[in-house]
């Protein structure tokens, strides 16, 4: 499904809606008004209605939202029913933590390979996957056609590794490195997880007593 | 320094400016025009001028920007010259990776304590700090007055742990958990690192072929 003209800020809120609706569903709450949902999420009811209207509403006058239905609809919009094959590049502390921490299957992805260059790591098992030598990534991509790379590579190596992965057909990066894909690869899909940017933003908020997210 | 009326999106771009200027400085580039900087960063020159004008400019007609001066100024705006005492709560895979991965000192913080509830972890050293029993966090806070908590706690425990930390005087959270502080603690400063939200956003971008960040 391709939805055009949806603002970035709405898109950014969708995962949060999805999380809250999942919790409501687990709590056995099958129906909720936009007012109640707004209160729970700390936003306004009209923002929720506006956001969800971008995708065609889902709400019913006087009934509110069916939590399971809305959760599933937002899940579809987010593409969480996919199982996009993904590889992890860089199995250091951070890479391993990401591999162990994330429930990829429920988020639209399938982790099929883990790679590093460090001899001492090769062969170690992480989440039932062996850490492979990154020198074998080309062959692995030819055979298994991963579309996404979880990119946990030191900045010094990022440029060369990224270049090779794009050559190997990787279409999207979940980027934990400080490498800036946008300027180098305008046609590649990137979602950045920039830890230091986030920590600097916290420092700014503290310094300037900003509470906004 | 308290700067009011600066839009969130400008604030979000400051760390990126800071990173690029740091790289330019390390590369020995002492001066750059907004056009060159824009090209490097994949934004427009007028956006850069607009952004920096929020903080009083720094550019000189016909000269451009002095990279070191601008880096230092943005660093001050971000409060990176601070050394705000911070504690890490939750020393599992993710918490340890964060502790080992981040260069807190250069980002305005000083990591002074690491806590977990798991007996088997207590006493282990991470980055020259022993993992302490979270039951001793109250006493530690009374003695050492940390202002920030790096929050890597499972959702199931997040509510209780957060409540206690706020009671102990923690003013800001770098939040890696799925716990939503905003609704519970409107007066607390929070910067969220929501891995699953980010991965869901990547899934959305892939599903809808969105390249924007």
Report on this model:
Two copies of one chain form a homodimer. Chain A is of the alpha/beta class and 213 residues long. A seven-stranded mixed sheet of chain A has the order 5-6-4-3-7-8-9. In chain A, strand 5 and strand 6 form a beta hairpin. The two termini of chain A are 29 Å apart. The model of chain A has no long low-confidence stretch (mean pLDDT 90).
Overall mean pLDDT of chain A:
90
Approximate helicity band of chain A: 40-55%
The strand order across the widest sheet of chain A is 5-6-4-3-7-8-9
The low-confidence parts of chain A are none
> What global shape of chain A is seen?
globular
Count of extended strands of chain A? 9
State the order of secondary-structure elements of chain A, H for helix, E for strand: HEHHEHEHEEEHEHEHEH
Strand content of chain A: 15-25%
Q: How large is the radius of gyration of chain A?
A: 20 Å
Oligomerization category of the chains in this entry: homodimer
| Protein chain pair with the most extensive contact, residues per chain | A-B, 70 and 70 residues
- Number of DSSP helical runs of chain A: 9
- Main pleated sheet of chain A: 7 strands, mixed
- Between the first and last Cα atoms of chain A, what is the distance in angstroms? 29 Å
Structural class of chain A comes to alpha/beta
């Amino acid at each position: 499904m391709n939805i055009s003209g949806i603002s970035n800020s709405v898109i950014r809120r969708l995962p949060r809606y999805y999380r809250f609706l999942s919790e409501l569903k687990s709590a056995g709450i099958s129906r909720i008004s936009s007012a109640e949902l707004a209160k729970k999420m700390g936003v306004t009811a009209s923002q929720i209605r506006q956001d969800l209207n971008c995708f065609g509403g889902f709400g019913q006058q006087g009934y509110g939202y069916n939590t399971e239905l809305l959760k599933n609809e937002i899940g579809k919009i987010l593409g969480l029913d996919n199982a996009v094959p993904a590889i992890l590049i860089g199995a250091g502390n951070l890479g391993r933590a990401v591999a162990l921490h994330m429930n990829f299957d429920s988020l639209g992805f399938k982790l099929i390979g883990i790679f590093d260059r460090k001899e001492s790591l090769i062969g170690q098992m992480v989440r039932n996957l062996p850490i492979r030598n990154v020198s074998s990534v080309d062959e692995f991509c030819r055979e298994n056609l991963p579309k996404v790379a979880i990119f946990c590579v030191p900045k010094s190596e990022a440029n060369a590794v990224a270049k090779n992965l794009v050559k190997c057909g990787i279409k999207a990066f979940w980027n934990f490195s400080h490498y800036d894909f946008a300027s180098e690869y305008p046609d590649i899909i990137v979602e950045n997880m920039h830890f230091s940017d986030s920590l600097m933003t916290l420092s700014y908020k503290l310094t300037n007593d900003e509470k906004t997210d």
